[in-house]
Amino acid sequence: xxxxxxxxxxxxxxxxxxxxxxxxxxxxxxxxxxxxxxxxxxxxxxxxxxxxxxxxxxxxxxxxxxxxxxxxxxxxxxxxxxxxxxxxxxxxxxxxxxxxxxxxxxxxxxxxxxxxxxxxxxxxxxxxxxxxxxxxxxxxxxxxxxxxxxxxxxxxxxxxxxxxxxxxxxxxxxxxxxxxxxxxxxxxxxxxxxxxxxxxxxxxxxxxxxxxxxxxxxxxxxxxxxxxxxxxxxxxxxxxxxxxxxxxxxxxxxxxxxxxxxxxxxxxxxxxxxxxxxxxxxxxxxxxxxxxxxxxxxxxxxxxxxxxxxxxxxxxxxxxxxxxxxxxxxxxxxxxxxxxxxxxxxxxxxxxxxxxxxxxxxxxxxxxxxxxxxxxxxxxxxxxxxxxxxxxxxxxxxxxxxxxxxxxxxxxxxxxxxxxxxxxxxxxxxxxxxxxxxxxxxxxxxxxxxxxxxxxxxxxxxxxxxxxxxxxxxxxxxxxxxxxxxxxxxxxxxxxxxxxxxxxxxxxxxxxxxxxxxxxxxx
Length: 523
What we know:
Elements (H helix, E strand, L loop, with lengths): L1 H17 L19 E9 L2 E14 L11 E10 L2 E2 L7 E4 L8 E2 L12 E2 L40 H7 L3 E5 L19 H15 L11 E6 L1 H11 L7 H6 L11 E5 L5 H12 L11 H18 L2 E2 L4 E2 L5 H20 L2 H10 L4 E2 L4 E2 L2 H8 L16 H5 L12 H8 L8 H9 L2 H6 L8 E7 L7 H13 L3 E7 L10 H12 L6
Parallel strand pairs: 5-8, 5-9, 9-10, 10-15, 15-16
Antiparallel strand pairs: 1-2, 2-3, 3-4, 3-8, 6-7, 11-12, 13-14
Helix pairs in contact: 6-7
């Protein structure tokens, strides 16, 4: 018996030595370097005043064992240790997982460090590309954590205040991961960031956090993903696809940690999701609204709208408050009563009588009774106007970001809908290849809702601007309704007259996170 014990101890010692270097440090590539940090202090302007935060800053931490590109597959972690010079313990704080993706582009975690405060920066757009955001918007840079600046945010906060800042000031741990994107090219010209690389990387980052439970500060069971635009779509996808085995081969390939990748809560602003159905939804909403160069081809627009009508009916989504099933015929009414009118009322009631009268004089399509606003859905659509051509996403010339997303190692862009593929090729019988269909599923949050994926997050904060014309308003509302029909806790609303990625209430988001987790700062 003694001999067995001695052999066992020897084997244990040998195993331990194999994972240690000469300094006694672990060689496990997935172990969080808890002692490798710098101490930083920043003053953050919140809705209640200025908050001084001292935090431990961990930079460029690799989160996979076999990275394709370590400059993208790494993360920064900020752990608050003092608030207003009072020591706090963030070991059990919720984790704010800031997704900096825009336009399905890469997020570089090295490079320039993402701006003055160390968040990941977005990858540079490819030559001739749209600038990293759908619709030709410029890349959103200069804010920590890859989050866009909150210009004009409520509560008097200046443009340098971001959601990640506010989370840090509330005592939350902030994780800002990099990830690959559609713009990544190797030296030999091959692509290495096409779908599903971004979601695979971010799942690996979540697994890394959970793998380091008790080592990486924060509550690994209370992770909130946060993103806008394509980042909002990927945040939603991270929320709905938790622990799906469909990603296992991709995760194994990059050496992701053996841990779960489900998250507690999901935050998405203006999510550009449900891509294979987004063209039809766009024509349903904006088909008869002209672009700057006039109306789009009305025959093709009607064909796409008809496809959307069939799709919407197939979802069998049950609206709130006994509304019934959402269809193309009644969706305008549903948007009015449950999203648009409440948003307009909230805004108009916040104005002084003088300012409200000025606004109404400029927007005569709105009537005001004192009790609230009233307007027709089509008048609202005309007010917003159409931004994109047709098709809005899988465009025939593949100039939009989305066909580029579904390229592969050697092909930059591929059509991902039968409609566009057939029209672009001139062959009415050709169909999207099976591998593209699979990638489309892997990039669509709604796919996993329809599959009733058991790892779906329980808590959701969904926001869009009422004047966002990057996609149809039905996209976010379908996402919200599908989750509600699965009994998830969903907080969804529109910011009146807000554009793409609008956020009039960043402080409210952080307060929501604190409330649903019952988190309180401990000294």
